[in-house]
Amino acid sequence: MTRYLAILAAFAALACSPPPSPTDASSDAGSMGSDATDAHIINDGAIDAIDDASADGEADASLPPPEARPPAGPLRGTRGRGFQAFLGIPYAEPPVGDRRWRSPVAKAPWTNVRDAITPGAACAQSGLGNNLGAEDCLFINVHTPDPRPTNAPVMVWIHGGAFVFGEGLQTDRGTAGDILAQRYGMVVVSMNYRLGNFGFFTSPSIGANGNQGFEDQQLALRWVRDNVSAFGGDPNNVTIVGESAGGISVCLHLVAPASQGLYRRAVSQSGLCDSALPTRAQAEMAGTDVVRSLGCDTAPDLGACMRGKTMPEVRTAGALGGNVFATLLASTRSSWPSIDGTVLPGQFRERVTAGSVADVPMIFGWNRDEGTLFVALAELGGTMIQESTRAMVLDSLASQSGVDRAAIDAQYPRSRYSDVRLAIAEPLGHFALACPSRRAAKLLAERGRTVFTYRFDFPDAAFQLPPDWALGAFHSAEIQFVFGRSARVGMPRFNAEQSMLHLAMSGYWARFVRGGDPNGDGAVPWMPRTMTAERSLVIDRTFAMRDNVDRDPCALWDR
User: Fold this and answer.
1) Distance of alpha carbon 551 from its chain centroid, rounded?
2) Is the separation of the CB atoms in 236 and 226 below 8 Å?
3) CA distance 372 to 422
4) How many CB atoms lie within 10 A of CB 26?
């Protein structure tokens, strides 16, 4: 069993705040349209499945270990067939002791060759009953083609996990960059960043700005700028890619002043970016709760008391209790990045509207069945899913959105669903994930940015803890088709159909990483959104361009 299963890599960072603006409702959502393109995933239906020469993620002990000499210090990695891997590279001084809750400090260069053959520790985290990780966790992983290229495009992966759990290189290797490096000639970088109470705790009096984890990401991007050429990458051709909390992070880098110039394009997968972050006052209030729960609220030296607490004590302090729904439907996300006025000067929508957003090509997308994963997680966690659960969730959605409960029932009539779990999942997924992602893409396109949007509809992605009902195109399902390794426990290879989907989808991503345009190589043309045309690529067993995808359900929430 893997450390996180598929759940922990998938768990969303969800915002439940009222959407700020309406959406045009001029045509049928998801309709094909007169100029729609519909084609099989692979043109002419002919392509080989992934062969055994593809990367398996395992080092080949018969090959001499590669070395790299970046400015950070010399490294010794491992080789596989067609790739080199350098894992567990420290990019910051350990954020422990007096550095706990401080902005990260770049790791001092070293002179002796350092082994980079195993991933570093995941950051301290607590999620779904798993208490894992360490405070000394700020590591980077690099996968590069073998032989090593020169000025190759660079993809930097930012993991999801609700800002409270996850790691750059999952223990099941589901987000390893070896396959992408071997097949597409790109350098793939992943990172760990501080999470939960270590990454997003706010207390001005002890120097905790509440955005330490996001600053970790920024330092990691600067490390890539300064060091990636030693691995064959082009520091001037970097694409940031993230899913869920990682997708939100991508959007925040688009509007954060210190992130500008560190990337040339961006991909946000299920990023729900048009969702409100906690204000400074809300973040400080959440921080006060953490201080109180640790018994430091009456301490004569608050900093000494807080930094004297053990890692396990801090990890769970002030954690929101209750089941998955209680967590998802909270009005304020205490472990999110917050608007501190400096690292993050304003909300995403405010910054984009004011024009303070990077002018780079972007891919934004969401999954058709975003909500099913969370209903399944609640059920797997012991929650009885019944009609009263649906009533509770819809009441909460009405309260958080300001939408009349009767209007929600009219949009999602119970009679439409054969299973109450589906009757909960669809409105939850639209409100919390799909529609905020769609709004963000629309907002950027209206400001003249180049935005390619997609919806992932493929219903047969692997899930490591399958429930007794079909999850469809669940939240995070698309990740495995970007990286090329099935999420099914003990079966990392795809079947033929899944292999074709991976090759098609990863091809779009690779072309975008290479030059900012996902088109080419005979793939179904993917047209960007415009100020007047809301068109998206629908990814399923066939690929199709469609107009106004999810327009109708989002019209309810986008107000």
Assistant:
1) 23
2) no
3) 7
4) 10
Under a CB-based contact definition with an 8 Å cutoff, are residues 30 and 534 in contact?
Answer: no
pLDDT at site 170: 86
Beta-carbon count within 10 A of 395 CB: 13
Q: How many CA atoms lie within 13 A of 483 on its CB side?
A: 31
**Contact (Cβ atoms closer than 8 angstroms) between residue 460 and residue 297:** no
**Of the listed ranges 24-33, 219-228, 411-420, the one predicted with least confidence:** 24-33
| DSSP three-state, residue 472 | coil
Q: Can you read off the two tokens belonging to residue 474?
A: 């669940």
158 vs 37 pLDDT, higher one: 158
Segment 16-30 mean pLDDT:
33
Helix and strand tally (H, E) in the chain? 18, 19
Q: Average model confidence (pLDDT) for the chain? A: 88
Residue 470 exposure: Cα atoms within 13 Å on the Cβ side = 7
Q: Report which residue type is found at 526.
A: W
Which residue, 387, 389, 394, is CA-closest to 378? Answer: 389
For 180-227, the pLDDT digits (tens) are 999 999 999 999 999 999 999 999 999 999 999 999 999 999 999 999
In this prediction the pTM is: 0.91
Strands (E), 91-232: 114-115, 125-127, 130-132, 139-145, 152-158, 187-191, 202-203, 208-209
Query: Which residues contact residue 259 at a Cβ distance below 8 angstroms, ignoring those fewer than 6 apart?
Result: 218, 221, 252, 253, 358
Dihedral of CA atoms 182, 184, 185, 188 in degrees, nearest 10, equals: -80
* Active centre residues (catalytic): 244, 370, 475
Please report the DSSP string for 481-528 in residue order. Answer: HHHT---STT--S--HHHHHHHHHHHHHHHHHHHHS----TTPPP-PP
Q: Over the stretch 64-96, which tens digit does the pLDDT of each residue have?
A: 899 999 999 999 999 999 999 999 999 999 999
Kind and range of the H or E element at 223? helix 212-227
Mean of the pLDDT values across residues 485-504?
Answer: 88
Which residue reads 């590591």 in tokens? 139
Q: Is the pLDDT assigned to residue 466 strictly greater than 90?
A: no
- 397 and 553 Cβ atoms separated by less than 8 Å: no
Where do runs of H (alpha helix) occur along 47-195? 178-184
The hierarchical CATH code for the domain 5-284+320-557 is 3.40.50.1820
Q: What angle do CA 163, 292, 206 make, to 5 degrees?
A: 70
CA–CA gap between residue 395 and residue 194 (Å, rounded) = 34
